[in-house]
Write a structure and sequence with these properties.
The chain is an alpha/beta fold. 27% of the residues lie in helices and 13% in strands. The structure holds alpha-D-glucopyranose and calcium ion.
C-alpha cells in the first residue's frame, strides 16, 4: 500500500536476470529464455515485482550481449521471439513485470547500421557513428594519430582505424562496440521506433545501459577534445567530454515524448550512469522533467577502489555511510534512488563488504537488510538471494569477460604488473565473479546445465544452492523473502523519510525511517565482533517491535549487536 501519488515502483523490488548464467534449458552450457521461464516459481516465491533481463538480442557476444547486432530479435543462443513472448505472458500471469536492457550508446560492429556506415565515406549512414580523420598532420595509423587521446573502458584506445576508408571510429567500450552518433536525428528516431516496438510487444520498461554517455561534447568544427592524462595512465580521460554531455537532458526528454508519453501504464526507466553526481541525478529523476525514474549511480561501488578498480582496499564503513547518506539526502524531496550492491559488472557483495566464509549467511542477510531499508527501489542480482560468493578463480584461463582478459593482456604487454598481482586484482574485481552459473542444486553443474557450462560453476554450490535453501527457513533465500515482503506491507519502508545515525561509527550502520507516526530503526553490524550501540533516543525504542532480525534468538534492545547482526525495529 502506498499513497495514491506514489508511483508503483516505489514499493517494488527488481530482480536482475543475466540470462547466460541463469538456467540452461537445452543442454548447450549457456543459459537461455526457456531456462528463465523454468525458474519463475523461484522468483514468484521470492516475491519480486519486476524482472530486468540483461540483453538477449542477436549479438556476436564480444561483450556478452552488450554488443547488439539486431535490436528487434532474440539471439538463437537464448531462443526465439516466440520463447520471449511466452516468457512475457508467464511473467505477467504471475503478476510480475519485465524490463528489457536497452543498449543504445553503441551497437555491435556487426549491426547492419554499422556495416553500412563503414562501407564508404558517403554512405547515407556514415554519420550514424563517430567517424573522424587522423589527428591533423599525422598519418592514419601512426602512433598517437587517433582523433582524441581517450582510452576505451576495455583497454587500448577508444578509436579504431578502418583501413578501407582511412578514418577512425569511436568506441568507448570494445572495438566491436562502435558508439552511435546521437547528434543525428535519424539515429534517435530509429531508436525511439525500436523502443516503441518492444513496448507494443508488452515489455514494461527499460534499463538503459551507460545512457549518460550518449551526448558527446562535440565542438562546432566537429572535433572532440582530448582528455587529461593522469600520472601513470596510458590514455587521456575522456569522461568529462562524454559523461552527462551537453545534450543528455534534451535526448532523454525527447525520448520520453516520443516513446513513453500517453502509454496506459507508465513504463519503468532506470538509467545506468557511471560517474553521475547527486546534483545531476536530481535533474535526471525529477518527475517534472520527465527523463528517467531513477539512475544507477556508482559512488558506493567505487569506495574500495584505489587508482583503478583492480587496486582494491578494504571499505571504510564511514565512507559508505557518508556516500549513501548523501544520496538519500540529495534525493529526499525531488527524484528517487535505486539501491543495489550487485549486478553483472560488480563482484559479489558478500565477498566484498561481508564475510563469505564463517559468517556468510549472517553477513549476506545484514547487507541485504541495510540496503533494502534505504529509501529507493532495491535491485537483487541473481544469486544474491542465495548469498552466492565471488568465483575465486585461480587461473587466467578461467576468465571469460572481455574487460578482465584485455586488462590482463595489456598490463602484461606493457610490463605494468606481474601475473600474480594481476590475478589478485581479477579475483577481487573481475565481472566474472558475478557471472558464474546460478547454483540451483548440488549436482555436478549445479542444476544450471547438464553439460559443462560456458564459465565454471563455483565448487561451493555443494553447500550454497537454491534447493537446500528453499527447505531451510534460516537460509539467505528465506530472509530475502521476508525482507521483500516487508517493503510490500510496511509503507514506511517504501516512503518514509531517511535519517542517518552514528555517522562516525566505524562498525555499525544505523538509520531511522519515518512515515507519519511510524518509525523504523535499522541497525547493521559490519564486523565479526559484538558492538554496543549508543543511541540518543534509546529509551524510546525500549519496547519497540523487532520486525526483522537475522538471528533466530531474540535478545533485548540493549543487548550488543552480535557478529554481522541486523535488526529492524518498528514503533508508532
Ligand atoms: C554497461 C554494462 C556492461 C557493459 C557496458 C558496455 O556498463 O552493464 O556490462 O559492458 O555497459 O555496454
Ligand atoms: Ca542453452
Amino acid at each position: 500500500m502506498t499513497s495514491p501519488a506514489a508511483p508503483w515502483w516505489t514499493s517494488a523490488v527488481v530482480y536482475q536476470v543475466y540470462p547466460r548464467s541463469f538456467a540452461d534449458s537445452n543442454g548447450d552450457g549457456i543459459g537461455d529464455l526457456r531456462g528463465v521461464a523454468g525458474k519463475l516459481d523461484h522468483l514468484e516465491l521470492l516475491g519480486v515485482d519486476v524482472i530486468w533481463l540483461s540483453p538477449v538480442y542477436p549479438s556476436p557476444q564480444d561483450d556478452a550481449g552488450y554488443d547488439i547486432s539486431d535490436y528487434r530479435g532474440i539471439d538463437p543462443v537464448f531462443g526465439t521471439l516466440e520463447d520471449f513472448d511466452a516468457l512475457l505472458v508467464d511473467v505477467h500471469a504471475r503478476g510480475m513485470k519485465l524490463v528489457m536492457d536497452l543498449v543504445v550508446n553503441h551497437t555491435s560492429d556487426e549491426h547492419p547500421w554499422f556495416v553500412e556506415s563503414r562501407s564508404s565515406r558517403d554512405n547515407p549512414k556514415r554519420d550514424w557513428y563517430w567517424w573522424r580523420p587522423a589527428r591533423p598532420h599525422m598519418e592514419p595509423g601512426a602512433p598517437g594519430a587517433e582523433p582524441t587521446n581517450w582510452g576505451s573502458a576495455f583497454s587500448g584506445p577508444a578509436w579504431d582505424l578502418d583501413q578501407a576508408t582511412g578514418e577512425y571510429y569511436l568506441h568507448l567500450f570494445s572495438r566491436k562496440q562502435p558508439d552511435l552518433n546521437w547528434e543525428n536525428p535519424e539515429v534517435r528516431a530509429a531508436i525511439h521506433a525500436m523502443m516503441r516496438w518492444w513496448l507494443d510487444r508488452g515489455v514494461d520498461g527499460f534499463r538503459m545501459d551507460v545512457i549518460n554517455f550518449i551526448s558527446k561534447d562535440v565542438r562546432a568544427d566537429g572535433s572532440l577534445p582530448d582528455g587529461v592524462v593522469r600520472a601513470g595512465a596510458r590514455y587521456g580521460d575522456g569522461h568529462p567530454h562524454f559523461s552527462c554531455g551537453p545534450r543528455i537532458h534534451e535526448y532523454l526528454q525527447e525520448m520520453n515524448r516520443e516513446v513513453f508519453a500517453g502509454r496506459r501504464e507508465r513504463p519503468l526507466t532506470v538509467g545506468e550512469m557511471p560517474g553521475v553526481t547527486v546534483d545531476q541525478a536530481v535533474l535526471f529523476t525529477d518527475p517534472a522533467r520527465a527523463e528517467v525514474d531513477m539512475v544507477f549511480q556508482f559512488e558506493h561501488v567505487g569506495l574500495d577502489h584505489g587508482a583503478s578498480k583492480w587496486d582494491v582496499h578494504p571499505l571504510r564503513l564511514t565512507d559508505l555511510k557518508a556516500s549513501l547518506g548523501r544520496w538519500q539526502a540529495g534525493l529526499a524531496d525531488v527524484g528517487w534512488n535505486s539501491l543495489y550492491w550487485d549486478n553483472h559488472d560488480q563482484p559479489r557483495i558478500v565477498s566484498r563488504f561481508g564475510d563469505d566464509g564463517e559468517h556468510r549467511v549472517r553477513s549476506a542477510t545484514m547487507l541485504a537488510t541495510v540496503l533494502h531499508l534505504h529509501r529507493g527501489t532495491p535491485y537483487v542480482y541473481q544469486g544474491e538471494e542465495l548469498g552466492m560468493t565471488n568465483a575465486h578463480f585461480e587461473r587466467i584461463d578461467d576468465y571469460r569477460d572481455i574487460e578482465s582478459l584485455n586488462h590482463y593482456a595489456e598490463a602484461l604487454t606493457h610490463g605494468l604488473a606481474d601475473p600474480g598481482a594481476l590475478l589478485a586484482g581479477l579475483r577481487a574485481s573481475s565481472r566474472d565473479n558475478a557471472r558464474t552459473p546460478v547454483q540451483w542444486d548440488g549436482t555436478e553443474y549445479a542444476g544450471f546445465s547438464t553439460v559443462e557450462p560456458w564459465i565454471a560453476v563455483n565448487p561451493n554450490h555443494l553447500e550454497i544452492n537454491a534447493a537446500v535453501q528453499h527447505d531451510d527457513p534460516g537460509s539467505v533465500f528465506h530472509f530475502y523473502r521476508r525482507l521483500i515482503a516487508l517493503r510490500h506491507t510496511e509503507p514506511a519502508v517504501a516512503l518514509g523519510t531517511f535519517t542517518m545515525l552514528l555517522a562516525d561509527d566505524a562498525a555499525v550502520y544505523a538509520f531511522r525511517r519515518r512515515l507519519g507516526e511510524t518509525r523504523l530503526l535499522v541497525l547493521g553490524n559490519f564486523t565479526a565482533t559484538e558492538q554496543t550501540v549508543a543511541l540518543d533516543d534509546a529509551d524510546a525504542w525500549a519496547g519497540a517491535e523487532l520486525v526483522l532480525g537475522n538471528y533466530p534468538e531474540v535478545v533485548g534492545f540493549d543487548a550488543p549487536l552480535r557478529p554481522w547482526e541486523s535488526r529492524v525495529f518498528r514503533r508508532g
